[in-house]
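ok trying again, last paste got cut off:
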Amino acid sequence: MNITYASKADHAYIVEKDRHIHPTLVETKIKEKEIYILWEDEARIGWMRYGYFWDNTPFMNMIWIDEPFRGRGSGQRVVQYWENEMKKKGFDTVMTSTQSDESAQHFYRGIGYVDAGALLLDTQPLEIILMKKIEGVIVEGE
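nice, full thing came through this time. structure:
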């Protein structure tokens, strides 16, 4: 699996597949290099998108891996890649969230994320906020 920044060529793919981002924001996220595309050979198999909580803490908004490619470590690899990139940019903490009825909470806890709070919306299950200190992440070239 390869990981690249999304480019203009990925715009239609992202808009079609990622139903959790307003289509007008995709171009900006691509320009800001806040979307990664996951590749298997020449085919896109998923993406990871992030932003910044309170405009100062990297916050992973979405990971998606197509069903046939799940369970092969791709999710863990893209999270590690992102953590390394955030470490290179000088950050020591990253965040993410997941709904309490989703199994992703176990994935995140398994790779070192800890519960940091929750958000309760009237129409959705509890949203669990998770964070991780990344001081120990090994950055390539160090």
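cool. The helical segments are 11-17, 23-31, 74-88, 104-110. The chain is about 25% helix and 35% strand.
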